[in-house]
Each structure stands twice: as structure tokens, then as C-alpha cells.
Amino acid sequence: xxxxxxxxxxxxxSVLWFLGFLxxxxxxxxxxxxxxxxxxxxxxxxxxLGKILxxxxxxxxxxxxxxxxxxxxxxxxxxxxIGGYAIGMWLMYARTEGIVADSLAAQAIPPxxxxxxxxxxxxxxxxxxxSEFPPIWAFAHxxxxxxxxVVLVPGxxxxxxxxxAFRSRVTGVYLSILxxxxxxxxxxxxxxxxxxxxxxxxxxxxxxxxxxxxxxxALISIWFFWASAAALGLGYVLFAWVxxxxxxxxxxxxxxxxxxxxxxGYHVESYKLFVFTLTAIVAGIAGAxxxxxxxxxxxxxxxxxxxxxxxxxxAIGGRGRLxxxxxxxxxxxxxxxxxxxxxAPDVNLGVYTIKWTDWWLVLLGVSFVAVTLFAPxxxxxxxxxxxxxx
Amino acid sequence: MSTLLELSGVSVSFDxxxxxxxxxxxxxxxxxxxxxxxxxAGKTTFMDIITGKxxxxxxxxxxxxxxxxxLGLSESQIAREGVxxxxxxxxxxxxxxxxxxLAMALKNPRGPFDVLFYKKTKRGAxxxxxxxxxxxxxxxxxxLAGELSHGQKQWLEIGMLLAQEPRLLLVDxxxxxxxxxxxxxxxxxxxxxxKTRAVVVVEHDMEFVRRLNCKVTVLNEGSVLAEGSxxxxxxxxxxxxxxxxx
Lengths: 390, 246
Ligand SMILES: Nc1ncnc2c1ncn2[C@@H]1O[C@H](COP(=O)(O)OP(=O)(O)OP(=O)(O)O)[C@@H](O)[C@H]1O
Ligand SMILES: [Mg+2]
Prior knowledge:
Oligomer: heterodimer
Strand content of chain B: 25-35%
Number of strands of chain B: 10
Bound molecules: adenosine-5'-triphosphate, magnesium ion
Number of helices of chain B: 10
Mean pLDDT of chain B: 93
Strand order of the largest sheet of chain B: 6-7-8-3-9-10
């Protein structure tokens, strides 16, 4: 992609505002973190904040594909998960190899390469009763190749799936169901022990970065936080650039009346495919940054419900404006951890006590319906209103 | 005047009902042509066939100097060949400004990457201004299309067609819902456009058709009932019977 020039930023002051906020936020977290600051913010909370930034990144991708282009994809969390698995494979491989090599080094005869590989394989796959590397681990030894997979696998899957779906002109609710089916199929496949990705155990220990065994988690957590903030900033600029100008005009037109766009001479399917694939790649990158902070990835993460949450964040934040997706994600994930973390006081109604840990999902569902019906502009709409008044 | 588009022996049926029945039609370049006919005569379906929205069961649709068939092409390819279409119900992109609507229609490369890296040019901006002038929307360029009056939306859509620089313009009931003054202006736009290209206008309003002052084709039950000058077709007893008499 060409780097956006000054005139682009000058024409889109909201991008500068967003970058300003993000920069300030990053600075504050850095100043108060354990590793680089006063320690007011715990390492685990730095990780939580870093993960939220990754979720914001996939949310703006979702906003571009749904809010701007009108494709209600209920499958973008699958791409996020694939990104996580791709980086997780290298993390697990490299770390296990290090441990195994250390323990074998004590032997009188140094182990051969194949002995080492077998030992690593049985370490990793023992839990699913296997002791050999499945073919999909062919590149797991190499960080650059596995980083390439973070981009390539979601990109290719989106390209093939999108090509098939858009070419047959599947739209609206049918397309949503199809994307949901793709997600479900992927998650069911991953649940199997012979998928080659450790079944329901998933990949774990991802917070331990090979080569940085001696580095405290406090420092690693702030590195990932910075990386997540940088990725979100770059992603925001990229998407703001895509949806501004003529491209934005065409994809919004596709959302509003795709048949009419065809009669203007635009090949609608190519545009949808472009948007679907680009956002899938960004989702993959967001996942690759998220899971090392989460420490573990398993097939439940890719369950269809995750992609539905994503749509809920974007809807509550207000579709069709990138900062809306960020607002929705931050608001809902923070509220969710407050309500489900047990900090929210129970409500005693006399006959019945509302425990928020049980009722949070109901509240979220009701809010979603309420926003859809009464405030389709979402939280972002409030910001717009304030801005117009100011 | 050479032939630009020729339909021959075209038929299409929906669930056994023949909406277009062995229709043959020709138009040259430049030419202005009016099509009239009762409701359900197949006028809109005729445009659907040319623009690739509906595939005919039988017949040929031959286009241009190289006599290519339009039947194998997709809607967007046909549009890029130079066929522009205005729909019966005005369809502009209401959430976007008049300028954005016109800019999207401007004749330019249509691929996703062409559009992504598109740089605004002075020439493009001038084209948009010139078209806005032609359709009387110069003062509304920065307004949202959704805020325009019904008549202005119709003009914006005509403007988008002009921006496409098509060789053939298909216009479905442009004067519907317009005031007499708006109709007059629309007539002028169409007559002007037809000086350099082929324009087909479907219209019910006989006064409007008379003012276009061009050859008229009468469609009925999916085929051509009569063709000729307005005076010729309006005095045809069959035409009076199925269309005018009621
Ligand atoms: N997609 C479709 N499926 C089924 N029937 C259709 C379809 N499109 C058109 N028809 C039928 O074909 C016939 C011709 O329709 P068409 O819209 O072409 O008429 P028209 O001449 O444009 O009429 P009007 O003056 O009312 O606009 C009508 O009887 C209509 O019901
Ligand atoms: Mg019609």
C-alpha cells in the first residue's frame, strides 16, 4: 500500500485525533506499568489492555467489511484464530525445542537432528497421543515463515471462500449463515485430536517467548502492548485511507445498492473480495498479537459466538465509522469484564436476586436489540452529535 | 447513422408467461428513440435484457462496430461497453453527496486497484462541474443526494449516465412524478444527449413523447406493434385499440 500523504491526514482530522488518543493512552500505560513505570498498572492488566487493542483492530476490520461494505461476516474471528494458531505454532515449537535440547545436552552422545525432532514432537503432541509432526507444522521451526502464514492463511482462505460466495451472488443473511458455517467447520475440525493442532488442548504457554526466557513477563507484556498499539494505529490509518476517497464511495454504494453499482460498470464481486480479504488479513494479524498476550489458544476461541460478539461490538459502537468500532469494543469488553468479574453488585429484587455473572449476557443481548432498534448510530452517533453541537 | 444495437428474435418468459415475444429492434448512433406501450408490455424487461440483468431464452443481441454479442457479458461488462441505464424508480446513492455520485460515475478505469489509488484530477473535477451545470445541480454539489427533490434525483441520475459517457443511454420513465417545468428541462437534456449518442426513452406521457420529436416504437405483449413518427403510430388503429383508446 502506498503511504498516505499529508493531504490525506489533513482531510481526515479524525485520524489524527485517534492517533493522538492512542499515543496518549500508550504513554500513560507505559508510565504506570510495572516494567517501565511506577507499577500502578499490574502486568496482567497491561496484558488485558493490550488484548483489548487487538480486539479493537479486528473490530475496525469488521466495521470496514460490514459497516462500510455491507457484508455481515460472522466469520472474521476464524481469521483472528488462524493468526493466533500460526504464531502459536512457532512459539510452542521453538520453546519446546529449547527445553528438549537442554535436557538432551546432558547425554554423552549428542542427539541427532531426527532424535531431537522426535523428542520435540512427542513433547508437543503427547496430549493427543501422537509423537510425530503433522504436515501443517512443516514451517513451525521458522519464525519468518510462520509470520508469513499469519498473513497468507487467513488471506487465502478469505480469497477462496469469498470468491466462491460472491461469484454466486450470495448476499445478506445467506452470506452471514455461510460465513458462520465456515467458522463452525473450522472450530469443529480444530477440536479433533488428529487435526494436528492438539485438539481441544489448543496451543499453550504462548506468553513465553523463545529467546527471552530470562526476560520478566512485565517487560514482555509492555512490548506486546506497544506492538498492539502500533498495529492498531497503522490499521486505523490504512482503513481510514481505504474508506476515504473513491474506494470508500464505491464500497458504500455497494452496501446501499449493489445492483446499481454494477450498471455503473463496477465489478462488484472484485470489490467485495478485496475488502473481505484485506480485512481477513488484518484480523489474522490482530490474532497473532492477541494470543501471545492471552497465553493460550484453543478451538473454543473460534466458536461461532465469538464472531457474533464482534458484530455486537461494532453495532453498539455504531457502524460505518471506525472510531465507533473502537468505542464499542472498549466499552463492551470493559463492561463485560466488570460484570462477569464479580465486581458488579448483585441487584436484590426481593423475590429474585440478579447475579450479573449470570445476567450479563442477557443485558448485552438486550442492549444490542435496543441499539439496533432505537439508536442505529450507536455510541459513535453520540460522538457525532456532540461534535456537531461543539 | 450506423446501427449500434440490434435485437433479433428475442424471447423471454417468466414462469411460462412470455414477457418478451420474438422481439426485434434496431437503433443507430446517434439517434433518439421513444418507446411507448401499455403497462406490462415488456418495456422494462427489454432494458433488462440489453443491460444483462435478464438473460433471454432465445434471440440475439448484437452491439457495436465489431458486432459482439451482449448475451455473454455481465452487467458491469455491458456497462463498460458503453450502455448506461436510468431506472424507473430513481436510484442514486442517497447517503453520498451529489459530487460523490457523479465522481463515481465518471468514465475512468473501474478495477478495485485503479479506484484505490485513484488521484483526483483537475480534468475530472471539471467534468463533474460541467455535468452539474447541465443538470442544474451546480449549487447542490456538496449536498447529500438523499436531500434532493424527486425531480432533482432524476436529473442526478441522468447526470451520472452522462458522466459514464455511454454510447447508448436507456432511460426508463424519466418524467414520472415531475412538474411540467421539470419535464420540459428533462426533454431538453435528452434531446441534447441524443445529438452525439443513441438514447432510448420509455415514457407513458404522450405530450412528453411528442416533444421529443423522434421515431416511436410501440411495444405490446412483448413485441413491436408499430413503429414510425408519432403521428403515424398514434393514428394506427391497433395502437389506438391497445394503448391510446383506453
Ligand atoms: N423478474 C420477473 N419475474 C416475473 N415476472 C416478471 C419479471 N419481470 C417482469 N415480469 C412480468 O413481465 C411483464 C412485463 O413487465 P415490464 O416490467 O417489462 O413491463 P413494462 O412495460 O415496463 O410496464 P410498466 O409500464 O408498468 O413499467 C409484466 O407482466 C411483469 O409482471
Ligand atoms: Mg416498466
